[in-house]
Each structure stands twice: as C-alpha cells, then as structure tokens.
Amino acid sequence: MKNLILLCLSIILLNFIHCSEDNSVNPPPAQNQKGKLVVKSNPPGARIYLMGTDTGKNTPDSLLDLEPDIYDLFLYLQYYDTAYFSVKIIENLTTSKEITLQDGLPFVDIVLDYIYAFSGDSVKFSWLLNQDVLIDSIIIERPITTSGNYVTDRYIYNKELFVWNDQFGNPIKYFLPPSNLGANYYPRVEGFTYWFNFYGQKAHGVMTSFHLFFSQEM
Predict the structure, then answer these.
(1) Per the structure, how many domains does the chain have?
(2) Final residue belonging to a domain, choices 79, 100, 121
(3) How many angstroms separate the Cα of 75 from the Cα of each of 42, 45, 157, 160, 190?
(4) Which residues form the domain of 134?
(5) Computed from CA positions of residues 35, 36, 41, 46, in that sequence, does the dihedral angle turn out positive or negative?
(6) Is the residue at 9 inside a domain?
C-alpha cells in the first residue's frame, strides 16, 4: 500500500513538472521602436535630403527605421526654391509630410532694342530673354504712313520654345521682323509709336503665363 501511494505521488509530481514546462511564459518579442516618414511634394520628383545627406530618393517616397527624434530635411527640384523643414519622428508611428514647392524662376523679362538701316528709313527690332519661354504669339502694331495709318503683324508660334542663351551661356538675340520670314526690316515712320505684345509662358518651373507690353517711339 505504501509503495502504491509513492507511485501515485511520483506520477502527479511528473505531470506537474511537465505542465509547468509547457506553460512557461516566454518573454515577448522585442518591439520595433523606430518610426517611418512619408515625404510628398507638389510637384513630385524632388530629391529628399535628410540631415544634409542625400537619401537617393525622390518624392513621393518613405524613409524607414528612423530613431525617435527631430530631423531636419530639405527637398531639391530644379527650377524651384529649395524647401527646408523639420519633422518629429515618434516610435512605432508613421509621420507624413507634404510640401508645396515654390517657383524659383524670376518673372519673365524681355529687353527690347532696335537699329536703323538704309539711311534711317528702315528699322529692325531685337529682343533678349532672361529665361527659356514658350511663345504663343507676338503681335505688333506699327505705323505705315505719316498720316497715322497702322498695320498689325501677328506672328503665331503655338508654344514654340525660345531659349534665352546658347550652349556657352551667351544670350541669344531674336529679331522682329523674324529673319526666317524674308523681310529684315520694317519701314520707319518717324514721330510715331510702335507697339509690341508678347504672349507665352515659362518653359520651366510652374510654367506661369505672361503678357509683356512694350512701346517704342521712333
């Protein structure tokens, strides 16, 4: 009888040890304490720099495994102002930042000039740009007689690209009347005003439209 009792106690003890081993609590897996940053820009395609270092990524894109902290970033896109900003990264969270880029190009400007020819009886106009533009049209109102009669010349380009400098960085000079249309000069009517209207848009950046108006008295 005594041996039977000892056997039963041994079986109970073994079962208790086995259950204790099976039900032991394992330590929870280590949690990812890092954060994620999503960077977008309008327009997209801007290079992302983190703490002054090129990330090799362009907007929109994500920066992963960031330690919780405050980070300084900037976005670079040609023809736009560099955008500087800071973000706070929080552990285990995704932070999103969207930046609207500002046009880095100046307003379109044209420098208009002229020269006389044929003893001062004819005039040719030249113009220089300060950046690449897409020209829609150039409209000129000019006198044709000393009686005050005017004619309107319309040159339609349908957003043709006019670059402002050549491959060496030298400004390109354009002419009115256009050299490819045959006539090289307008008749000059002394004492009257010539009127010029340039219509187009920037070729780069936000590509805003422009209308530039000039007058020139002979």
Answers:
(1) 2
(2) 100
(3) 11, 9, 35, 30, 54
(4) 110-217
(5) positive
(6) no
Q: Which residue has the tokens 């300084």?
A: 72
Strands 110-117 and 174-176: unpaired
Q: What is the CATH number of the domain that holds 116?
A: 2.60.40
155-179 tens-digit pLDDT: 999 999 999 999 999 999 999 999 8
Give the number of other Cβ atoms within 10 Å of residue 9's Cβ: 10
pLDDT in tens, 84-142: 999 999 999 999 999 999 999 999 999 999 999 999 999 999 999 999 999 999 999 99
Inside any domain, residue 124? yes
